[in-house]
Amino acid sequence: MSHHRVWVYGDHINTDVIFPGKYTYTMKDPTQMASVALQDLDENFASQVQAGDVIVAGRNWGCGSSREQAVTALKYAGVRTLIAASFNGLYFRNCINQGVHPIVCPGLADTLQTGDSIEIDLDEHVIVANGNAYPIPTLSPTVRAILETGGLVNMLRERDWPMAEAT
Amino acid sequence: MSGHTFVEKALARAAHADSARAGDVLDVQPDLIFSHDNSAAIRRIFMETGAQRIARPDRVAITLDHAAPAPTTQHAQNHAEIREWVRQQGIANFFEVGRGICHQVISEEALVLPGEVILGADSHSTHYGWLGAFGMGVGRTEMAALWATGELWLQVPESMRITLTGHLRPGVTSKDLALFILGQWGADGGQYRSVEFAGEGISSLTLDQRAVLPNMMAEFGAMSAYIPPDQAIFDYLERNRQRDYTPLYPDDDAIYADDYIIDLSSLQPQVAIPHSPDNVHNLSDVIGQPIQQAFIGTCTNGRYEDLAAAAEILAGHHVAVRTIVIPASSEVLLRATRSGVLQTLIEAGATINTPGCGPCMGNHMGIPAPDEATISTGNRNFRGRMGTAQADIYLASPAVVAASAIAGAIADPHEILIQQQAINASGAIL
């Protein structure tokens, strides 16, 4: 069981407001990415977010671009769990592959305000908010393994790679 | 036992499985993988995995298109890093600055074929459904994994079917159809799904028109989209293809989670207003909205017919606002040069930029000032998309964008066409 402060947002929050496209080929440092996270949606977020905070949103979080920095920026801002009524499919995959846990939980955003706290119990697969329990959906074994290893890069690191041939 | 949808068949083939059903998790080996200006960032992730060589460099493509030619030294360094990587790894399909937008170039080069699977580090990779292929966008980490291993985990999506009947009326395009779909069922109407088009209405759409539909299904939340390929597609690919292929079609008794029918003849021109591509209105409701910039281009509507449709409207007129035209590829640019379409556009006051993505995602070549409105043939009008959160973006077909450029406000191309026909007719009498 862990306690988390929440940032609550609405429906259809797209990747252009999570991480603006104009930075995509120039910004390489993930900490710098964190400093512009959600800047066109919530000017307080980047300056006030703390490690362990959780975003709780409505439908279709992360729609738009495939840009992974829209996950990276939040991850390095300290957000390791995202809860939404539904996720864009690409964004959901990007979360898993970066070791950020996306939890589909319809209705939760309607009951909370930014600054509230929730409890997440991964052993019991449940979120507790305002005294109510919300189930955490189980993931397929493949997906769970990637998440538990901390993402796709960590998983690939465990492989034995052939050496590059001499050139 | 019910039949299979297109996506179930295509992913089973690419995973070397006998069959697959929605919900199955498969390790898929795509026929082609590609990335663009993001390839340098993908290389850095690739290096973190410990892998040293790209598994199948013959099945990798890279285009420089998103910020090309480089607008800043930083962008130029990014391109330089990519060129060096292409050389080191022997990447077989590399397309330089000016060749065009990834989706258009890969289609023209026939690097992906009907029934095949293509994964791209770009959300509009749904595009390849226009060729009857499974196309899906992936993130940078996923592309690094694909470079390293040649395969990726995928969960087979559920499918929905959109059956098209009848014919589009003159002045109505597949862009209007795509916007209509978004307006009707919302930006998550196709969430996690394969959107499979069907029906006799498809054959009435030209090839350039068809490509718009799967492309725009990215805005619908779709994993992929599909148009059943016909002889016109096979002929198009014949010029450049380098391998054989087997087109795939869904079974008649395949299971669809949703089944919609659209009568093409009932549609009218549509416009998406700020700040979401599903905020769609009839053109007639937004006429007169002032704009300060018009943009014709992108992977959605930067093909030859799009430029020709704009030229038809602009002929003999002069634009009232700055009008930026960016062909989707060098092939499109060349064809528009030879046919005179380019001359018509330039004479009308439009300016032509290097084939590529241009200002669509706010990189360069037409960034609006705060409080300016742009009407664009692109696919996204999210707040901040073109560089500043204070600028409004309207999305429409090339003809509507061209008519709006003349008026300096959102306008109906139909009225301009009627005037032009009247002028032509009187000219004939004189």
Tell me about this structure.
- Chain A has seven helices and seven strands.
- By secondary structure, chain A is α/β, with parallel strands linked by helices.
- The model of chain A has no long low-confidence stretch (mean pLDDT 93).
- Chain B is α/β, with parallel strands linked by helices and 430 residues long.
- Chain B is built from 16 helices and 18 strands.
- In chain B, the strands form five sheets. A five-stranded parallel β-sheet of chain B has the order 4-3-2-5-6, sandwiched between helices. In chain B, strands 16-15-14-17-18 form a five-stranded parallel β-sheet, covered by helices on one side.
- Chain B is globular, with a radius of gyration of 21 Å.
Uncertain stretches of chain B: none
Multimerization status: heterodimer
Which strand order does the major sheet of chain A show?
4-3-2-1-5-6-7
Number of separate helices of chain A: 7
CATH topology category name of chain A: Aconitase, domain 4
What class, by secondary structure content of chain B? alpha/beta
Quickly name the level 1 CATH class of chain A. Alpha Beta
Summed up, what is this model?
Chain A has helices spanning 15-18, 30-35, 45-48, 69-76, 89-97, 141-149, 152-157; strands spanning 2-8, 54-57, 81-84, 101-104, 117-121, 126-129, 132-135. With 167 residues, chain A is of the alpha/beta class. Chain B has two domains: 18-264, Aconitase, domain 3; 273-429, Aconitase, domain 3 (2-Layer Sandwich), CATH 3.30.499.
Keywords:
heterodimer; A: alpha/beta; Aconitase, domain 4; 7 helices; 28% helix; B: 430 residues; Aconitase, domain 3; 5-stranded parallel sheet; globular
Topology:
The complex is a heterodimer of chains A (167) and B (430).
Chain A (H helix, E strand, L loop, with lengths): L1 E7 L6 H4 L11 H6 L9 H4 L5 E4 L11 H8 L4 E4 L4 H9 L3 E4 L12 E5 L4 E4 L2 E4 L5 H9 L2 H6 L10
Chain B lengths: L5 H9 L10 E4 L3 E4 L3 H11 L10 E4 L9 H17 L3 E3 L6 H7 L8 E4 L13 E4 L2 H10 L2 E4 L3 E7 L8 H12 L8 E5 L8 H4 L1 H5 L7 E3 L4 H8 L19 E6 L6 E3 L7 E3 H4 L6 E4 L1 H4 L2 H11 L7 E4 L4 H10 L1 H7 L3 E2 L20 E4 L15 E4 L2 H10 L5 H17 L1
Parallel strand pairs in B: 2-3, 2-5, 3-4, 5-6, 8-9, 8-11, 9-10, 14-15, 14-17, 15-16, 17-18
Antiparallel strand pairs in B: 1-7, 12-13
Helix pairs in contact in B: 2-5, 12-14, 12-15
